[in-house]
């Protein structure tokens, strides 16, 4: 069912990827979905992005790996996962049995490893898209693709050629000019750009003069980063035509609507799942009414409708009314 009784169309198009609705759950915050099945009606989600997988299994970083901060969560998990083959054998069959889209998140240490992972996954069915995690602040290597425009462009293009799936590039906010990296991803052929991964940060126990995270540095998520994520979506939406997936601190319907107006076509919900795994379906219930309130019959009608004062002042209508 794509429209509700009010005739609102919840479908969204992200390049070659069509989703039944724009509410997804973010990588690393929803496990591999099975553990949520008794709490959440998984089939209602617009999509699931399972925990990032790497070619080989990884033990992740030493503890502590999470710390709560004011209005946020700091983590340094370090891409703890059982590797690609384990995912294909043990998680993908369940994920692909769900009536929702699975966007498989992959991270390679090198360009060739990313491409090899895409190539290997191309043999599998039940994958709606790949999300390239080129933005994890908690591992060395890999993140270069999210901070170097040329490497990013070449990587997206290489992965696109290696598989039949739509490709989303997930970017880090930990760069000076995120629009430049997004332009490179768009040039490489990304179907969508996911914004943002966590913001690098740290927490300190001053009495012991020790960092609280075993890895010293970590990635900040949750409400604390929403303004940064909105800024990134806004800046990137003005720089590329590629559809955007907004991520960062989303916890309620108003947050979602803000991301649409800023320029996102879909959103992912992350940290909020930790204290309320039903948040995504509740937001989905509220979405049609919010779209009606915004005067839109579809999400697409609302995307990027933000008007700044500078733009209003330079619009032809404003010039006429200023002159009269
Ligand atoms: C504990 C934890 C683990 C995460 N693991 C991943 C991961 O494996 N891959 C990834 O792309 N992002 C990962 N993220 C980042 C989230 O997907 C998301 O981009 C970020 O947390 C911002 O959204 P939020 O504020 O809604 O959590 C992780 C976040 C948290 C809190």
Describe this structure in words.
Helices cover 33% and strands 19% of the residues. It starts with 11 loop residues before the first strand and ends with a helix. Helix 7 (253-262) packs across helix 9. Helix 2 (111-121) links the parallel strand 7 and strand 8 (129-133). The strands form four sheets. An eight-stranded parallel beta barrel has the order 3-4-7-8-9-10-15-16, surrounded by six helices. The chain is globular and about 65 Å long. The protein has 324 residues and is of the alpha/beta class. The mean pLDDT is 95. The protein binds flavin mononucleotide. Flavin mononucleotide is lined by residues 26-29, 51-52, 73, 75, 77, 79, 105, 133, 136, 170, 197-198, 221-222, 225, 247-250, 269-271.
List the helices and strands and how they pair.
Elements: E1 12-14, E2 17-19, E3 23-25, E4 47-48, E5 66-69, E6 72-75, H1 84-97, E7 101-106, H2 111-121, E8 129-133, H3 144-147, H4 149-162, E9 167-171, H5 178-187, E10 192-195, E11 199-202, E12 204-205, E13 210-211, E14 217-221, H6 226-237, E15 244-247, H7 253-262, E16 266-269, H8 272-275, H9 279-293, H10 309-314, H11 316-323
Parallel strand pairs: 3-4, 3-16, 4-7, 7-8, 8-9, 9-10, 10-15, 15-16
Antiparallel strand pairs: 1-2, 5-6, 6-14, 11-14, 12-13
Helix pairs in contact: 2-4, 4-5, 5-6, 6-7, 7-9
The structure holds flavin mononucleotide.
